[in-house]
Structures are given as structure tokens and as C-alpha cells.
Specification:
The chain has helices at 2-47, 50-91. With 92 residues, the protein is mainly α. It has a single domain, classed as Orthogonal Bundle (Helix Hairpins), CATH 1.10.287. The longest helix is centred in the N-terminal third of the chain and has 46 residues, at 2-47. The protein starts with a helix and ends with a helix.
Length: 92
């Protein structure tokens, strides 16, 4: 029984590591999109050109999408950590 629990813990740890790497990459992408959005926001305010306003809306959407993705990944990691800790408690 304890060997089976240990294997589950190892699998969960592997999944947590994978998700953390995915979250790290997503966070880097988010930073890039935030910079792009800042530029687009400034351009839209300065030029008042329809293309610049459209670009600002698109980049805002990208930022929101990456934030949601990052939040989802963080929630998933937290759930797996709780599950792992419960299994570790069962091992004693």
C-alpha cells in the first residue's frame, strides 16, 4: 500500500513540476504581452487612429487571456499540492 502511495506522490510531483514550468513560461509570455499592451495603449491615446485603438483592444485581450491561464495553472498546482500532502500524511 505505501509503495502505491509513494508512486502516486512521485507522479503528482512530476505533474507539479511540469505545471510550474508551464506557469513560468506563461508568466514570461504575459510580461511580453503586457509590454505590447502598454505600447498599444500609449499609441491609441496619442494618435487616436482606429488601427491603434483596435490594436489596444486586441493586446488587452491577450493580457487577460494569459492572466486567466496563469491563474488556472496556479489553482491546479495548489490542488495537486494539497492532494500530495494528504497522501504524504497517509504514509506517516
Amino acid at each position: 500500500m505505501s509503495a502505491r502511495i509513494a508512486r502516486k506522490i512521485f507522479r503528482i510531483n512530476d505533474e507539479i513540476a511540469r505545471l510550474r514550468e508551464e506557469a513560468r513560461l506563461t508568466e514570461e509570455e504575459l510580461r511580453i504581452h503586457q509590454h505590447l499592451h502598454d505600447d498599444a495603449l500609449r499609441d491609441a491615446a496619442v494618435t487616436d487612429h482606429p488601427f491603434d485603438r483596435e490594436d489596444e483592444r486586441e493586446t488587452r485581450g491577450d493580457v487577460e487571456r494569459f492572466r486567466r491561464t496563469l491563474e488556472h495553472l496556479e489553482e491546479k498546482i495548489a490542488r495537486l499540492e494539497v492532494k500530495r500532502d494528504r497522501l504524504a500524511d497517509r504514509l506517516g
